[in-house]
Design goal:
The protein is elongated. The two termini are 37 Å apart. It has two domains: 145 residues, Trefoil (Trefoil (Acidic Fibroblast Growth Factor, subunit A)); 246 residues, Jelly Rolls. 6% of the residues lie in helices and 40% in strands. A hairpin with a 2-residue loop joins β16 and β17. The chain is mainly β and 443 residues long. Strands 13, 15, 16, 17, 18, 21, 26, 27, 28 and 32 form a ten-stranded mixed beta sheet that branches. Strands 14, 19, 20, 22, 23, 24, 25 and 29 form an eight-stranded antiparallel beta sheet that branches. Strands 5-4-1-12 form a four-stranded antiparallel beta sheet, with no helix packed on it. The relative contact order is 0.18. The protein has four helices and 32 strands.
Length: 443
Amino acid sequence: MSLHFKSFLKSRWVLLAGLGGLLVGAPGCEPEPALAPEAPADVKQSLAAPIGQTISLKACLNGKFISADGNLGADAPLVADRAAAQGWELFQVVDGGGGTVALRVSETGKYVSADTNLGAKLVANRTTVGDWERFDWVDFGNGTVGLKARSTGKYVSTDQNRGANLPLYADRATAGCWESFTPTVQGGGGGGGTGQWVQIWSDEFDGTSVNTTNWNIVTNVHVNNEQQQYTTSGNNIQVSNGTLKLIARKESNNGYPFTSGRLESGGKREFRHGAVEARLKMPVGAGLWPAFWMLGNDINTVGWPACGELDIMENVGYGDWVSGALHGPGYYGNTPINGRFYPNSSVANWHTYRTEYSPNDIKWLIDGVVVKTTTKAEVSQYGAWQYDKPLFIILNLAVGGGYPNGINGATSPYFGVPQSTSDLIARTPQVFEVDYVRVFQWQ
């Protein structure tokens, strides 16, 4: 993602765009692979393949997680050598059809493939699902599963003779420890130990106007070469029929070609550690930039990026993906802490977007599925962790600017806004709709 340019008005800051259970014990490992008979057909997928969920897979052989680390190269094999499950080690289980599953890498949205042209080496660089990307999910009945590639009819193996990082190939006719994996569904979780998420606040937008006990309507933010003027007008901000609507219109205001709406909870609703969730429906059109995000409440004293920024969800007008990111001292603008996430249907449909942030890590979830986890240790290698203070919530619909331009390349008729989107907004005002915002703490 290209750098997002920032400007500041006095002590004001601004939108910085960014731009990821089923727990069963692993069986003991043998020096040589003990033969494990294939499960009968009637129990296949009975440790039911968690379709739609995000999982990690731990190899029986060494107790390490399977990784699709993109830093190893697009055609490099998946490996089983990671001590922890984070972005590269998380896979969404997708229905592959005909009783099969496909594995989609949470970090990239690409599918795992057992391409026979590569000797059935498992790679993670495919954009669609065909036979090479389909696997039988085989329950071994002992808390572990095997993956049998439809392309070869053979099991995925972590044969230790291939190297210390255990590269994965789908070439074994029978299954033992080398071919056994412990799946863990990734989701939820608060501060560890026993407990549960307890809702402590919400705005359900059930009234007919913005609840000013919860929100400030902000109009004086002009940053990132964005092309909108925020207003307080009912043409740009509405509450009706149980939802908040932030509306972008093609109309000149204060020298800007578009108008829109922006709400912030700063000074009114601020939260230290917890889970923040919203149910959102977004417009689709390159250059539209809805966002749901948070900033540290010390922004006006320490400035940005020292305050810390947590982007829960941003979208720049594409129907199939959103992004999330962190910005702080040493990791801002084109931040290394970012990711693209792929909802299971268009962003024009309703989805829940959530973050869970604790003293140890930050998780991003879509529709209850963890799509990325970033630890404090990962962030601290770039700069100071800034997420142990109260944060406040922002909802806004920008039009154009640095982040959209970095993706769509448009400079005309407006920066980050191609002609097609300008015409779209002129014909029909575009709406970023919010069903609710809810906050939880782990108790």
